[in-house]
């Protein structure tokens, strides 16, 4: 029987019953190798299994409090974490030192927890780490078809509100847009009623605030079907 009730790493995030553990592939090699082998069952393109030392693994779990009977049988010197059972939800890995500044190498959400926003949570957490490190990041390329759709949706959900909030701060947006409009329609209609000569923002400002790589910010803006002219200085 496995003696561990939680991943062999540091718990760096906890909200209600959700926890995130940072596991070093160098110090917990066997555990990380088993994570990669588990991911291979669900990811056809997964190729890395054993070379885990250069990676950090961020493992998401949900935990349940032990029952009263179990707590009664626990020894008095056991801490609270040993009285909990942490269930694996998914994980993502990232290189410790990535030349391309990738903030995510592989991502997996186990089938019982899919379509419950855990995938988006993992993506958002990877960009949170990028913002903390002060280095905008991007997922490792090329992306799978599903991964590309997920990231395009995430980038739009971050870039578009930033643009609209910046416009409001400049008092350029005077009317409330209908709720039924899509992201592209929303920004396109805003552009039609706003003089961009009075509104200046750089891609690097968006990147530093959201943690998204400047190239991904630029491609997202283009896909939003907006008319924004970029000058040589990135504005």
From TrEMBL:
<dbReference type="GO" id="GO:0000785">
    <property type="term" value="C:chromatin"/>
</dbReference>
<dbReference type="GO" id="GO:0003712">
    <property type="term" value="F:transcription coregulator activity"/>
</dbReference>
<dbReference type="GO" id="GO:0006357">
    <property type="term" value="P:regulation of transcription by RNA polymerase II"/>
</dbReference>
<protein>
    <recommendedName>
        <fullName>histone acetyltransferase</fullName>
        <ecNumber>2.3.1.48</ecNumber>
    </recommendedName>
</protein>
<dbReference type="InterPro" id="IPR050603">
    <property type="entry name" value="MYST_HAT"/>
</dbReference>
<keyword id="KW-0479">Metal-binding</keyword>
<dbReference type="GO" id="GO:0003682">
    <property type="term" value="F:chromatin binding"/>
</dbReference>
<keyword id="KW-0007">Acetylation</keyword>
<keyword id="KW-0862">Zinc</keyword>
<dbReference type="GO" id="GO:0005634">
    <property type="term" value="C:nucleus"/>
</dbReference>
<dbReference type="GO" id="GO:0004402">
    <property type="term" value="F:histone acetyltransferase activity"/>
</dbReference>
<dbReference type="Pfam" id="PF01853">
    <property type="entry name" value="MOZ_SAS"/>
</dbReference>
<dbReference type="InterPro" id="IPR016181">
    <property type="entry name" value="Acyl_CoA_acyltransferase"/>
</dbReference>
<dbReference type="InterPro" id="IPR002717">
    <property type="entry name" value="HAT_MYST-type"/>
</dbReference>
<dbReference type="InterPro" id="IPR036388">
    <property type="entry name" value="WH-like_DNA-bd_sf"/>
</dbReference>
<keyword id="KW-0808">Transferase</keyword>
<keyword id="KW-0863">Zinc-finger</keyword>
<comment type="similarity">
    <text>Belongs to the MYST (SAS/MOZ) family.</text>
</comment>
<keyword id="KW-0156">Chromatin regulator</keyword>
<keyword id="KW-0539">Nucleus</keyword>
<dbReference type="GO" id="GO:0008270">
    <property type="term" value="F:zinc ion binding"/>
</dbReference>
């Amino acid at each position: 029987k496995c003696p561990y009730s939680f991943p062999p790493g540091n718990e760096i995030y906890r909200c209600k019953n959700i926890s995130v553990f940072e596991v070093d592939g160098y110090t917990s090699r066997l555990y990380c190798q088993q994570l990669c082998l588990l991911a291979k069952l669900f990811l056809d393109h997964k190729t890395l299994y054993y070379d885990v030392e250069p990676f950090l693994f961020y493992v998401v779990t949900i935990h349940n409090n032990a029952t009263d009977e179990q707590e009664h049988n626990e020894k008095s010197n056991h801490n609270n974490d040993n009285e909990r059972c942490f269930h694996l939800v998914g994980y993502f890995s990232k290189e410790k030192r990535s030349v391309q500044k990738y903030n995510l190498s592989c991502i997996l959400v186990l089938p019982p927890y899919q379509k419950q926003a855990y995938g988006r949570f993992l993506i958002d957490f990877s960009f949170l780490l990028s913002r903390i490190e002060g280095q905008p990041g991007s997922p490792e390329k090329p992306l799978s078809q599903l991964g590309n759709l997920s990231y395009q949706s995430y980038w739009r959900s971050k870039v578009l509100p930033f643009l609209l909030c910046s416009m409001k701060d400049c008092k350029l947006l005077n009317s409330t847009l209908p709720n039924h409009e899509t992201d592209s329609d929303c920004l396109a209609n805003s552009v039609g009623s706003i003089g961009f000569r009075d509104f200046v923002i750089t891609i690097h400002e968006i990147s530093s605030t959201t943690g998204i790589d400047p190239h991904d910010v630029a491609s997202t803006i283009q896909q939003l079907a907006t008319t924004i002219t970029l000058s040589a200085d990135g504005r």
